[in-house]
Structures are given as structure tokens and as C-alpha cells.
């Protein structure tokens, strides 16, 4: 049985070990042309045992692997040259351009590596996001489905433009609620019970660029609070976070982190408690990336939580949205219990009547 030769993809002196498949047995099977254990796509053991590789693959596979590996070696030589330029340059614009080129080359160098491809497809949750090639694969997967789904829900539910006029998503926003020790990622637009949402959610902000201690602002708003005086609806600020520091290796906002960093929460979490007969309320989650030296300007004391003007707040703080999420909430039999838990007044009951009656 032919085997691939050892080259740059087997050398981890300057490459991260996370670019390799951890299991030696799986690695051996993955790099063997005849696939002794059968393709990963075959699930049944009997199908794997009957599998035979195509004629000539034993000869072609090592040659193809060597060709791609040599191409990778030449790309890494370009990376070394750029690294030298980066160390010598003091021009900010030039440095930004060089870092961008470096990132693109690091992606190209590993894009055809079988071990990297396997990890990207079968170990998505444990990928090393410090590696540009893994961020590339995550971005491609996100753009092929989740990004479009999120935008479809935001626009169909009129979160855009009822809260902010538009969004060019740059990050993936994953939302979970801790409930009965069971957590699942919430699909945008899902209707959740008051029991599930009575505690603050955890948020994962997935960056597809290099991220080291980036700062974020997060706003959660209810777009469907009844405004009886004006016979309309108003926006309520349910939760406000500022100056949140995250990175590729630490992208989660959860209760534990908020306890450690209480200054992040400028408006405490208020669970959605829709009043009876007010329909489904849209709870929009907006994520903004702050500049390196930027701190939130708007004083919390000046905020009108019950009549929150999100557009004015965003403009005042010069914030640009980079991601969003949405879930929905409706009155249920547990809503009054949640109101009582947070010291809120008893909810009103709305009814429909004809004009003039």
C-alpha cells in the first residue's frame, strides 16, 4: 500500500498542532489511499468492509498529496517574507495590508490539507479559531446557511427596519438559555416560554477575523411593548452590555463571566413578560463591535428603559451593528410568576373592541 511522504504538513515546528487530526489511527486511515476503514461517509460497518478504493488511487493519491504539499511549502515561504516585512514596517496602513495578505496566504497554505478539511467538517465545535484556515471554513459554512436564515428572520419579522434600518452581518451570534440543565442553540425567530427566558441568555459571538480582546456592545430590545397613550407600540430595553471583551479563544458571554465583570452590564436583564392578548413580542439582540479606544458614551442614568430609542443610542455612541439575533415571546400561564420574581407589577389584560362601543 502506497503512503504519502512527510513534508510541511507533518512539520509542526512553526505550524499549530491543531491543524492535524488528533487520533493517530484516524490520521493513518485518512492519509492512506486505499482507505482501510472505508470512507467516513459510510456509516454501516458492513458497507465499510465491502468498500474497495478505485483502481489506480494507490498510485495517484500520493502524487496528488505531494503536489499540494509542495504548493503549501512555497506559500509558507511567502508568509515568512511577509512576516519579515511586518517586523520592519512602522507604517500603520502598510501593516494592515501586510496582515491581510498574511491571513489570506495562511488560508491558502492549508486549504487543501486533508487533515484540516476533515477537522473542519467533523469537529466544528472544537476547531482552533486562532487558525485563519479554520475561520475560513467556519465563515463559508455560516454564509451558506445560518447567515441567510438569520437575515430572512430579521426581515420577515420586520426587526429590520423596526429597530435598526439595515445590517451587514460580520459575525455569527449564537444564543442559548440555561433551563433545567439543558442548553440548545436557539434558532432565530423561535417562540420561547417565559420559563425558559426568565434568566439571562448566554451569547457566543463568532468572529471570522483575527480577534484578540475586541470590545462589544450588546442590546436586547422588546419591539412590541404596548403604548396605550399613543395607541401604538414602543421599544423596551431588556438588557444592555458594554465594553465586553472577547476573542477567538474566548467568545462566550455567560453568567459566570458577568459575575467576574459586573461593569459590563449597564442595564440589568429584564425577562420578557408580554401582557395577555398582546400577541407575540419580538426580542431583538443587536451586537456592535467597539473601537479599541472607544467606551460607551451614553450615561446609563440618561436611558429611558421603557421607551428606549435604539437608533438614537446607536448614533450617539457611533456604533455599527455587526450581528443580530431574534426570538419571540408570548403570554403564558407562567408569565405572572416571572413578573412576581422580578418585582414587576401585575400584567394588564388587553381586549379588542369596536370603535364607538
From TrEMBL:
Under the heading PANTHER family, the entry gives: PHOSPHATIDYLETHANOLAMINE-BINDING PROTEIN, PHOSPHATIDYLETHANOLAMINE-BINDING PROTEIN 4
Q: Which GO CC terms are listed, alphabetically?
A: mitochondrion
Note the CDD domains from the entry. Answer: PEBP_euk
- Chief localisation class: mitochondrion
At the top level of its lineage, which domain of life is listed?
Eukaryota
The text of the family note is:
Belongs to the phosphatidylethanolamine-binding protein family. Mitochondrion-specific ribosomal protein mL38 subfamily.
* Pfam families per UniProt: PBP
Q: By what name is this protein known? A: Large ribosomal subunit protein mL38
Question: What UniProt keywords apply to this chain's record, in alphabetical order?
Answer: Coiled coil, Mitochondrion
Q: Does the keyword Mitochondrion apply?
A: yes
User: What does the UniProt entry say about where the protein is found?
Assistant: Mitochondrion
What organism does the record attribute this protein to?
A: Ambrosiozyma monospora (Yeast)
The coiled-coil segments of this chain are: 65-112
What this chain does, per the entry, is described as: Component of the mitochondrial ribosome (mitoribosome), a dedicated translation machinery responsible for the synthesis of mitochondrial genome-encoded proteins, including at least some of the essential transmembrane subunits of the mitochondrial respiratory chain. The mitoribosomes are attached to the mitochondrial inner membrane and translation products are cotranslationally integrated into the membrane.
Amino acid at each position: 500500500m502506497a503512503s504519502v511522504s512527510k513534508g510541511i504538513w507533518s512539520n509542526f515546528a512553526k505550524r499549530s498542532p491543531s491543524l492535524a487530526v488528533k487520533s493517530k489511527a484516524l490520521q493513518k486511515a485518512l492519509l492512506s489511499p486505499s482507505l482501510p476503514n472505508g470512507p467516513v461517509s459510510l456509516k454501516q460497518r458492513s458497507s465499510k468492509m465491502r468498500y474497495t478504493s478505485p483502481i489506480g488511487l494507490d498510485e495517484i493519491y500520493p502524487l496528488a498529496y505531494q503536489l499540494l504539499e509542495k504548493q503549501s511549502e512555497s506559500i509558507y515561504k511567502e508568509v515568512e517574507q511577509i512576516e519579515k516585512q511586518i517586523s520592519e514596517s512602522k507604517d500603520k496602513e502598510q501593516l494592515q495590508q501586510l496582515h491581510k495578505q498574511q491571513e489570506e496566504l495562511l488560508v491558502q497554505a492549508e486549504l487543501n490539507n486533508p487533515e484540516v478539511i476533515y477537522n473542519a467538517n467533523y469537529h466544528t465545535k472544537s476547531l482552533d479559531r486562532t487558525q485563519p484556515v479554520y475561520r475560513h471554513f467556519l465563515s463559508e459554512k455560516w454564509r451558506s446557511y445560518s447567515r441567510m436564515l438569520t437575515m430572512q428572520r430579521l426581515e420577515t419579522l420586520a426587526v429590520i427596519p423596526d429597530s435598526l434600518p439595515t445590517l451587514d452581518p460580520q459575525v455569527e451570534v449564537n444564543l442559548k438559555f440555561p433551563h433545567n440543565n439543558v442548553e440548545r442553540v436557539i434558532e432565530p425567530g423561535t417562540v420561547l416560554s417565559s420559563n425558559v427566558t426568565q434568566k439571562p441568555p448566554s451569547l457566543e459571538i463568532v468572529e471570522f477575523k483575527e480577534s484578540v480582546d475586541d470590545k462589544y456592545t450588546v442590546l436586547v430590545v422588546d419591539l412590541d411593548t404596548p403604548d396605550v397613550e399613543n395607541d401604538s407600540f414602543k421599544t423596551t430595553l431588556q438588557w444592555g452590555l458594554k465594553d465586553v471583551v472577547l476573542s477567538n479563544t474566548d467568545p462566550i458571554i455567560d453568567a459566570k463571566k458577568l459575575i467576574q465583570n459586573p461593569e459590563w452590564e449597564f442595564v440589568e436583564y429584564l425577562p420578557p413578560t408580554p401582557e395577555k392578548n398582546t400577541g407575540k413580542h419580538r426580542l431583538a439582540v443587536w451586537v456592535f463591535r467597539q473601537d479599541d479606544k472607544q467606551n460607551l458614551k451614553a450615561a446609563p442614568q440618561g436611558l429611558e428603559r421603557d421607551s428606549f430609542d435604539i437608533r438614537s443610542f446607536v448614533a450617539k455612541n457611533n456604533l455599527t451593528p455587526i450581528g443580530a439575533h431574534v426570538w419571540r415571546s408570548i403570554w403564558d400561564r407562567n408569565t405572572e410568576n416571572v413578573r412576581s420574581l422580578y418585582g414587576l407589577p401585575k400584567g394588564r389584560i388587553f381586549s379588542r373592541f369596536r370603535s364607538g362601543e
